[in-house]
Amino acid sequence: MSDNGTVEYTGEDKLVRITRTTLADGRDLIYFDDTDPYLSGESTRELSDPRDLPEASTLSEMRRDPLTGDWTVMAAHRMNRTFMPPANENPLAPSKEGQLPTEVPADDYNVVVFENRFPSFSLHMDVPDDYDTTVDGEEIFVRQPAKARCEVVCFDPDVNHSFRDLSVKRARTVIEVWANRTKELSAIDGIRQVFPFENRGAEIGVTLQHPHGQIYTYPYLPARTAAIVRRAKAHREDTGRDLFEDVLAAEKRSGKRIVAETEYFTAFVPAAAKWPVELMIMPNRDAKDFADLTGKEKDDLAVLYLDMLAKVDNFFEGVEKTPYIAGWNQAPVGEDRQYGRFHLQLFSLMRSPNRMKFLAGSESAMGAWISDTTPERIAETLRNAPGRSK
C-alpha cells in the first residue's frame, strides 16, 4: 500500500496534498497537508525514520462465541502498548531536534496517518497454509487470523489541543482524510467495515492525550453493525421502506430530540438513547460513508461537528472537557452495503459533573440497558448549551 515519497492530491480543487512514506519497521505513514509551502509542493515532509525498529509483525487471532455468534479478538501484544508517557516521549508529536524520534519523522505536520504500532488487527502477519481454524480441534470453537488494518489519525501537532480546537479548515481536512482512508481501506480484500473513531478523556481509558483518533477495519461485521443490518432487512421486508429514512423522518416530525438541522445533516438525540450524553449526526440523504459525501456535504459537516463538540463540552457545568467516544458508523463493504447509512454516534459515560456511569450487572452481563436520564432531557440541554463561537 505504501510508495515511498509518492505525492498525490485528494479533494476538490486539490484540497489536500498527500505524501506517503514507510516507517523503519515497514508500517505505512501518510502526510496530509492543507497549508503552504507543503500543499503547493514547494517543500516536502521528512520521509526517513531514523529509529532502529524490528520489522512489524503481529500475531492476532479472533474467536467466535458459539452462543452469540460475536467475534472476540485476542491481541496479547497490546498489553505492553504505550501508556500516558511523559511530554518528551509523546509518540504522536512531531520529531523535534534534540529529542527522541517519534512515530512522525517530520518536525511538524497538518494531519498525519500511520499504521498502529500495537494494532488489534494487522496485515503484518504470516498465516501458515495449515492454520488451525478451530480451538482445541473443536469445530464449535471457530478461530481465524485477525487480518485487517488499524490506523492512527493525528488531528493536530499540538498536544494541548483537542478536535474542538481545530479550525473549520482543519476539521474539513480531517474529514477529507477519513474519506480518503475509507475508500482505500474498503478496497482491501476481506474487509467488511471501516470504522473511524475518537476516544477523548482519561476517564474512558485514553492512553495518549495527544489529539488523535483511530481507524479500525474489520474482517467481519461488528455486533452493532450486524444488528443494524438485520433490523434494516426486516424493516424493508415488512414495509418496503428504508429503516434510516423512517427513523430520521420520525425524529423530524417529533422535533423534541432535534439539536440542530442544516441543509445536509440532522443532529439529534436518538429516541432510545442509552448514554447520559448521546448525540447522532445523520445525513439527510442516503450517503453510505465518508467517501460517498459530496464536497458541500463535507463542508457542512465540518461546521456542524465542531458546533456539536462545543455543545457537548458545555453540557456539564464546571466541566471543561466532557469525555466522549465519537464513532463514525459507515455502511458495510460488500453485499450488505444497502442496509447501512453513514452516521455519527457520539456519547459520554459522564452522568453528572465528574461522575461516571459504570456498567453494572444488567448492562455488562446481559446487555440490558438502564438509562439515568431521558433522551428529551439530553436534547434540551444540548440545544441550550453554547455552541462554537463564530
TrEMBL record:
Keywords: Carbohydrate metabolism, Galactose metabolism, Metal-binding, Nucleotidyltransferase, Transferase, Zinc. Its cofactor is Zn(2+). GO terms for cellular component: cytoplasm. Pathway: Carbohydrate metabolism; galactose metabolism. The active site is at H212. It catalyses: alpha-D-galactose 1-phosphate + UDP-alpha-D-glucose = alpha-D-glucose 1-phosphate + UDP-alpha-D-galactose. One of its GO terms (biological process) is galactose catabolic process via UDP-galactose, Leloir pathway. One of its GO terms (molecular function) is zinc ion binding. Residues 58-222 form the Galactose-1-phosphate uridyl transferase N-terminal domain. Its EC number is 2.7.7.12. Residues 235-384 form the Galactose-1-phosphate uridyl transferase C-terminal domain. InterPro entries: GalP_UDPtransf1, GalP_UDPtransf1_His-AS, GalP_Utransf_C, GalP_Utransf_N, HIT-like_sf. Belongs to the galactose-1-phosphate uridylyltransferase type 1 family. This is Galactose-1-phosphate uridylyltransferase. The gene is galT.
